[in-house]
Specification:
five-stranded parallel beta sheet, 5 strands, about 30% helix, globular
């Protein structure tokens, strides 16, 4: 189990070149980041690492898209409550099970940081909702 000095883990699933930029930015902000380029890789990452505090998920990807990933996540009792942020350039606003927010691409890094913080406070920062 992670302790207070272990950086919160974020799973970032996106096939766009900006994936590495987002991952690096989050790492500089104090997070640990695991990346995957499609839903299938994302599921394999979940099976092989500690549980992330959130998943940042693109919807349109090859092999397994974000919708397929969400269906599989929803069917897994151990993972179905994991908060997911959808990253999309689409203006579609349908509500999907397990999705806590939609972040529009192109994504500004400050918006990403503000969205992630309530779910994954960096080490050394107390969670204001915790006792």
């Amino acid at each position: 189990m992670p302790d207070a000095t272990t950086p919160p883990l974020i799973l970032l699933i996106d096939d766009e070149p900006e994936l590495e930029v987002m991952a690096r930015y989050l790492e500089l902000e104090g997070y640990s980041v695991v990346t995957a380029t499609n839903g299938e890789e994302g599921l394999m990452a979940l099976a092989s690492c500690r549980k992330p505090c959130i998943v940042l998920l693109d919807l349109m990807m090859p092999v397994m898209d974000g919708y397929g990933f969400l269906r599989r996540l929803h069917d897994d009792a151990a993972l179905c409550g994991l908060p997911v942020f959808v990253l999309t350039a689409s203006f579609q606003t349908e509500r999907m099970d397990g999705v806590v927010a939609t972040l529009r691409k192109p994504l500004h890094m400050e918006v990403l940081k503000e969205a992630v913080a309530p779910y994954c406070p960096p080490p050394g920062e107390e969670n204001p909702t915790a006792g």
